[in-house]
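Q: My labmate handed me this sequence with no annotations at all. I'd like to see what the chain might look like in three dimensions before we decide whether it's worth expressing. Could you predict it?
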Amino acid sequence: MLNYTFYDRRRLGKAVFFLASITAIIVFLFVSNNLVKGLGRQESQRMKIWADATKRLVQQDSNTDIEFLFSIIEQNDNIPVLIADEQGNILDQRNFDLPDSRHEKKMYTDLSDRDRDYLSSRLKRAIGASSLREAASRNPHIIAIDVAGTPQYIYFEDSDLLHRLSWYPYIQMGVMIFLAVIVFITIVYTKRAEQNRVWVGLSKETAHQLGTPISSLMAWTELLGSYGVDKSVVEEINKDVKRLSTIAERFSKIGSVPELELEYLNETIDKSLAYMRSRVSGKVELRLNLSDDDHGAMLSRSLFEWVMENLVKNAVDAMGGKPGTITITTGQERDRLYIDVSDTGKGIHKKNFKNVFNPGFTTKKRGWGLGLTLVKRIIEEYHKGRIYVKSSEPGVGTIFRIELPTAS
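A: Here is what I predict for the chain of 408 residues:
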């Protein structure tokens, strides 16, 4: 039964944050799009009124209020408009940003050839291969009017303001995504900084709390020797007291940046496993497949020994009390040293390759799920290396790989 409630809770929090962010983005995008579409419909309605006013002005009679019609036409100072005959010949234009007459209000007859070519290309692009009559039936931006029995067509485009507003939803979405990412990164780094403070505080306090009983045990072992207790018994007690001292030292180094020294990888691994050999089940065979060349690396020996012990213990647990083999292989690829710790245990599902290093993730009924988290911290933060699941198959086994920089 998996016991990683803390990790599940953290993953659920991320999922809720992303879901809330996506929902907010979709809502704002929907509202903004509706706003732009509404403005577009208003412009279309204004152009229909403008077209009707133009038609009435041409067909004016004694009852026509000319000043009112002129006021409607003059109010259009931002929507680009073309008036053309049935053959596609442009008769007049309004509000186009022209190449030679930019921001100038000119009649079509006063424009340069370059400006006229520009307007013709805009109209041709709107009607395509069809005639204006056919285009007017399918393109809402083309309005047909009748001027003294002669068909004419008004073609209009979105105003510059509406065109800019059409980009607003996407700009808004980009800004919101950017802010959501910034907030997420801030939360993650804040959590990580908080976890680091907890690691440091817990490590220092553990080292401090272990100091007093270790000193007391050292004194007791000396006293036992003076009482004539069997030396072999005293020596075994001394070994465990030294072990406790080593653990206290490791915790004290976790709470601060350790000093790295040049160590030889094969030698260090061999010595680090000396303690584990006598404590590994007889059903488990521990094999060393060390490279011929003993490579040098900058290590904190006590912390690196802790890493190897944790990985071996993790591999033993993966056996589940059944016979198996643990193989430790070293070598060099390019400018990186590597250590592979492989086992013939129950394996890890691919979806959990990264999860195994998360605090609280464990496949055991009892356990804190901090062993591999500690290993990752020591390798990556203190030794500038990398650790990952190289390969794993349920029922076959797992290979963890550590990569370290060579000693410069």
